[in-house]
Amino acid sequence: MTIVRNSEMRRELTVGEVAERSGVAVSTLHFYEAKGLIRSNRSRGNQRRYPRSVLRRVAVIKVAQRTGIPLSEIQEALTVLPDDRPLTVQDWARLSESWREQLNTRIASLMALRDHLTSCIGCGCLSLRECPLRNPHDVLSMEGAGPRLMDATEEDGQP
User: What is an annotated GO biological process for this record, any one (predicted)?
Assistant: First the structure.
């Protein structure tokens, strides 16, 4: 059994150590830092040194990304949390609750797309009257770029 002294436990981590322990590439850590998601200190030799708390922060970033939360929203959410300590269960509960409705909306939209997509796959024309993905005469182009028909805000309540 190895006894770890407090001074060793508080030692900051190199970028390589953080990359190895978090499973995130060094370049990704540099990117996160440039975007303000994590922070580092500089050693006398101008090398990055990260507090141990960055490991949990990186884990939260990866989980949020996996659920489809944009980095800008992750960064905004993390700004209200202290970066001098690991994120707590309560911190995560606040973060995840703030993203819950957005995720529920995305899930509902994907389920609607899945349910309607199977009826169109065979025809290939996407212009039949019954097709929930149709856009006759390109009328939706006036609303801007991108897909519009699967939005939950459609007037008739049907995607």
Answer: response to oxidative stress
